[in-house]
Protein 1
Amino acid sequence: MTREQTVTVWQDKVRMRVLSEGAGPALVFFHGPWGLTWDPFLTELAQAFTVHAPEHPGTTPGAPDDIYHLDGLWDLVLCYDELLTALKIDAAVLVGHSFGGMVACEMAAAYPRRTRKLVLLDPIGFWRDSERVVNWMTVNPAELPAWVFRDPSSEAAKRMLGILDAASPPEAAAAARVRLMWAMGATGKFTWPIPDKGLKKRIHRVSAPTLLVWGKEDRLVPPVYADEFARRIPGARVQTVEGAGHAPHVEQPERVARMVREFLA
Amino acid sequence: MKISMFHLMPHRELPPDFEKRYDSVWVTPPWHELADARRVGQYYNWTLDELLYAARAGFDGVCTNEHHQNAYGFMPSPNIMGAVLSKLTNGSNVAIVQMGATLPTSNPPIRVAEEYAMLDCISGGRLVAGLPLGSPMDVNFCYGITPLEHRERYREAFALTLKAWQARETFAWNGRYFQLAHVNLWPRPIQQPHPPVWVPGSGSISTFDFAVDNEVCYCFLSYSGAKAAKSMMDGYWKVVADKGREPNPYRAGFLQLVVVAETDAQAEEKYARHVEYFYHKCLHWPVQFMSPPGNQDYRSMVASVANPVRRAEDAKKLRYRDFVEKGYVIAGSPATVRDRLKEEVVKGLHVGNLMVLLQIGSMPHELTLENIDLFARKVLPALRGEWNDEGWVNQWWPERLREAVPQPATAGVGA
């Protein structure tokens, strides 16, 4: 049973809806650039943890302009610190996907004592001239699913990107398009035009045991980027996932949930 | 009304298969495959000569604009062109319409305020200060500004610019994006309290509000003609009325592509391939370049997703006669052009500040001069008196030029 609450932080200027499920130690999930969807992966994790999934500022319905109250990553990280305090979480497992992986890693660097363990799913945050990260905000929207997923026609893929079937009413399709565009815009504030925003200067502060999970067929952020993280986080473990692109937890939810639960056990 | 010649400064000799071989005319076209610096030097000189020719032929103003990494228009600094034009039109009644230097990509943005003040000084108070938001391609893709911050940066820079021109004392600007402890422009503009301000837009409802609230001239720089712009401009005039302002036609500017010949048939013969070059090659870029996520604010995005301003029409499938019929280009004999401009643009959109694009795509220098000459002699005089009977004041035109009628120079114009 998913619980829903809206937490207000940042001098009452930023509203963040948080979906929670399960019981046990706290686990916070940071979603990627396409907004939060409650996936089977999170349901799996909720078997053993109290999973909290906050919505990035600006992506909570009814509060699009809240994003304008944040100037940069420093503000964003402090917002999440306030959010954890409001949720009465001292320390938690932090799990993040893509853009959310970068945020989770920034949190782990800023607050080592709040971070029990860290799980990064195809995170961004580094840049190699020879293997450039593809900017998902600049690809043809019709081709976005094929950039993100190994199998863009799967139900899981459609759910994450809000792709509706042709029979859906046009208003629903328009709303889904607005939601997706705004989620990319509000997260893109912290990644444009090159998603290297100084994590390399801060990542040495990460002390939590860390697992990196990478979709073997990630076309946006090639798996070589796992090296950038692994060589900077002592003892980090890297696992690749067959049959998955940039969102392995969506395309292979059971396998990825098992990897993560084994790591967290 | 006031009629100005607009120039994009395009690459005039792109290869015939350009749009098949390359992804885009903007952001990514490879310079070394497509251009030659000496030849491009010739383009710049032709562009200046064409604008000066228009200035001497009796146009009210000459317009330049800013684009980056773009083969269809590459004046990265419109103020360099504007400086040449200011100097060489001294002694005339022609306005220097900069449409203009892009605030969000100028850092700090008082650089634009300074350069415009220079142009106003050099030209003796003939500057129209266009303050464009800038396209997503220029600002987000080429100059790296975050789409979500684009409009906020613009609005802050706009407020800073207006204050910098007018403040009597040195002031400190403690902004969100810009911090300057000692703002004290040297020089200041001749025109007081500041040069007239035009703001180009492309249909975002938030820009309508901004234009009316700030009492600027809203300009739609369109390549799709008046028919396609009708509903959008109606939306603008509704905002003007809703905010209790008078429907002064000089609150609006519009850019129209125009080609003139002795007859309609001759216009087709002379200009068809250049018009097709423009729409097929010069406007060749991926659809997503126009709207990176976050560039439109939430309210405008909701409105445009529900009711797109621009119909999804593939211009590559259209030919010269389609462009003319749909009004993308107003083409033909002087009588045809005059009548269509009056009915569709001037009256249809309620526009007092008309800009005409008379050098289009691959159009060579001599043919461009011919187009300018015919327009100046046979179209412009018949349009100039529009709106006079209604008694509106063009507050968005340099004050000393408002009543002036630029006279054609005796030498160099006319066949």
Protein 2
Amino acid sequence: MRFTKSYIIQYLFLLIIILFLILIINNVHFNLIRTGLGFDFAWLFRPASFSLAEHILPYSPSNSFAWALLVGWTNSLRVIFVALIFSTIIGISAGILGKSHNYILKFISRLYILIIRQTPLLLQLLFWYFVGFLSIRNPVNIIVPIINISNQGINIFGYILTPEFSSLIIGLSVFTGAYIAEIVRGGLNSVPKGQWEAYKSLGISDSIGLKDIIIPQALPAILPGLTSQYLNLAKNSTLAIAVGYADIYAVSDTVINQTGKSIEGFILLLIGFLFINLIISNIMEFFNRNILKNKA
Amino acid sequence: MKIITKDIKFLLFKARKIGINNKTDLFITFILLVGVFATLTNFLNWIFFHANWEVVSRNLNLYIIGTYPKALSWRPFLWISIIILLSFTTLLKKLNYIKKRFIYICWLLIIPLGIYLLAGGINIIPISTNFWGGLSLTLILTFISIIIALPIGILLALGRQSNLLIIKKITSLYIDCMRSVPLIAILFFGQLLTPLLLPVGMEINRVIRAIFSFSIFVSAYISEDIRGGLQSVPQNQIEAAKVLGLNKYQINKFIVLPQALIIAIPALTNQAIGLLQNTSLMAILGLVELLGISRSILANPQFIGSHLEVYVWLALIYWLVCTIIALLAKKIERHFSKSLNFQGDL
């Protein structure tokens, strides 16, 4: 009796979902006929005829829409990986400084987390782009021949990073860094106090103690949180459109505007994103497994 | 001489207390102090003498109510002042049980009141959502989306925990898909693709489409937070309830969910704060909420080049609203967690 009841509930639920999907697909079908758009992917191989300011793969407006989307995808990947490295550096330093015995360092770390986490990322990106880069009047030379910052972007050894790319990297790294710092702080707090006291009483210096004793023990608590922050970083990188960087979302948006193929464009965007997620979670899984294996 | 060494020893002791152990520490501290001091003076100098706050002071109305008709602007203003008043009474006053009940009911009434005041209807002139904007739009987007997403999230969490296989698989699929897609893609879907999904002739306005997108997105995240809460309810509670003869529905309603929700309050607060910040994405998709209206103010040639002032001002508003939400949640959590005690006693 109980079995039949639960089966009825499940199949009823399934039936409702299927009916709902059929209704939606029917509506979409009807609307596509009505607006004369149709559903096909043949447009992917027509020339894109819009230009992209930045691309690592060779690209010209005569290339196909498919190639333009791929270029956007690689642009996304580029931003994600550079920001991933910088955010890790910022996050780990800020997290460790938060545990420092120096009150001022602790205060700075807390203030950083407090300000960054309570303001929207989009606002921060616009800030870095419009205030951080575009409003520079006099170029700044940090180390005269090496790094030069102006409203044309950052120039390192003659390799020019555009203001769009640079502001995106800075914004994403600083934002994600604050979240990573919280995770690192939590991980360090999870190491028993006795371990800290033990290395100190053995006369081991703080830097070696952290590197060899505390951090290896904190890593299992840090890594899962870190993975989810990296995935968030990848998701947040789609805000690139606000500063005019041609990432996968921005290119998809342009493509959809040009062709009117919104459903197909959206599906391709989701597939592109699925691959980005898979890449990141696989790499993190690899790290996770190796580190945990070394520990054992 | 003796006194001086004593003084130095005392100073060293004090220094150690605030974390200065040796010369390197002293050096680092000194440099940091100089840096912090220089940044602060520069910033204050800019705020009081160099910044041109005209772009904020002359558009104060726009930031708060957007393009809402001038003659009726008292309506959003009234709503926002009620919210502020209610927040302060909740935060500052020590209240007895009955007054607390009253305040919680007031909080629940805030949303219908906001819809009534902004949209109009019975007895007051109706205003189209096209005119909504500024902080009032940001707040109403956040509140309504959260209140819709919370029950959906609870149902999804229960579905994922249930032992009915089909329901479990479908809810897991939904949650995992939603969590792997960027929010802006969902919002884009809501703004551009939902018209294609609807029957011919049926149209939904943009604010409602945005609320719909936010709700389906946030409900997936909320459900994961609540699942965390569900898992941390001790198993013996459920066994005890079974022994007492409660059925599944009763166990969930009276035993598991109340405890799970209280445990999940901090995580849910973070979701609410995240949602409030994420409403700013609608600026990209053409709503004039707080960030959107600022973008159109900055596009005005009269205020060209005052980005920094506007962004500092916006950061301050967002920061204040987020902090107030966090404080309110802490207060609510403290109120509820008194009744939550896993340790048994005689």
